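Sample pair:
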Amino acid sequence: MPTTIADGGTSTLTFTVTNPAANNGAQVVSFTDALPSGLKIAATPNVQKTCTGGSVTANAGATTIAVSGVTVAASSGVASTCTVKVDVINVSGQFNGSCATFPTAFTNQGAANPPSNISGLSNLIDAVTRSCVIVNAKPSLNKAFSPTTFTQGGTSTLTFTMTNPAANNGAQAVSFTDTLPSGLKIAATPNVLQTCTGGSITANAGATTIAVSNVTVPASTGVASTCTVKVDVTNQTGQFNAGCASFPVAFTNQGAANPPSNISGLSNLTDAVTRSCVTVLPTVDLTITKTNGVTVINTGP
């Protein structure tokens, strides 16, 4: 449990050993489980057991779990049970969108079709039932300004786009914080809009950070699904630039090839931000000069 995780998340694999209700004494058992090819033991295996004695070998990054010489308590008129638990994670890049289309390598077949992943059974009957864990690919995050040019005191809408890959992924909750470039701030009227559902968006007028927490990206099917969060931004007083060609580095957002320090707190998201830029033009002052009430008009030859 859980039976659904994000790419890089963990699930706890629980082995339950049952001593039948037949007044059986305590019994010592052993077995080895070879994980499906898309899974491995988590960096923190978090091994736990209610069985007594024996040993559990579950090394981080390995693909086998060996349980040796553990004892299941005596039963009486009712069965007795004990458990061994190990946290597992998906192999990098291995994911699936549903159990209906889950690769065979990820599944464990039941007693009617004994699995090759269970071996070394000692004093045990294989009663494993088919099980499945869904591994969702993480949604990706990108952002862009529109319009890309405005005059000092004007606004541009900063749009964050979250994309749930086309892999039959279920709906996924995501979070992140964006720190605006040093020349920008949230507009006096932030005009926050979202097509994602739930969660919260913190974008206070005049602030320089936008926090998006636990908004949900819709499930994808054969095609990717997307949702957006939009916030209006403006320039800091006196901050402008002549164009994106000479745009100060402090105003730019670097993409995934050069992960930006302005994106932080990523939860269940892959940083796919591409370099973006907004041009802030200086205000033009219009001056009218009048001399002695005389207007001179120059005409052509």
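The CA atoms of residues 178 and 263 lie 5 Å apart.
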